[in-house]
Amino acid sequence: MDADDFPTTESAMREGRQLSLEEMNQASQEAGDAFVANLARIEAAYAEHADEAFIGRSPERIATVTVGIDLRPRGVEFRHKELMRQFDRETVAEELTAAFRDARAQADERRREIAEAVTRA
């Protein structure tokens, strides 16, 4: 490096700074565009796996919950027909919540696998 590598005037310094900002803005825009395109590919991959379902079970096995890859509930089944007579509301609520969490954890793990596969491709 020598003295010619450094801007000597205030206007040259401003010009260099402006170019740097423009380059950073362009790089930021390109990174944002790539991120959005990647998200679109991931969402398309999720749509290809729309038929996948995940079953969550409650700790006491009084309920099972099915959710899709989109994390929306598809069904709830109870082991006992007269559930509310055998268990109090709080217990049923805790069991259902646990079943939903179990199913969602499975779906989230599958979503991560799909996203990683799409990102690597």
Automatic annotation (TrEMBL):
Family annotation (InterPro entries): YbaB-like_sf (IPR036894), YbaB/EbfC (IPR004401)
Source organism superkingdom: Bacteria
Gene3D superfamilies from the UniProt entry: Nucleoid-associated protein YbaB-like domain (3.30.1310.10)
Pfam families in alphabetical order: YbaB_DNA_bd (PF02575)
Residues forming coiled coils: none
GO terms, molecular function: DNA binding
The protein's name in its UniProt record: YbaB/EbfC family nucleoid-associated protein
Organism of provenance: Glycomyces buryatensis
Lineage of source species: Bacteria, Bacillati, Actinomycetota, Actinomycetes, Glycomycetales
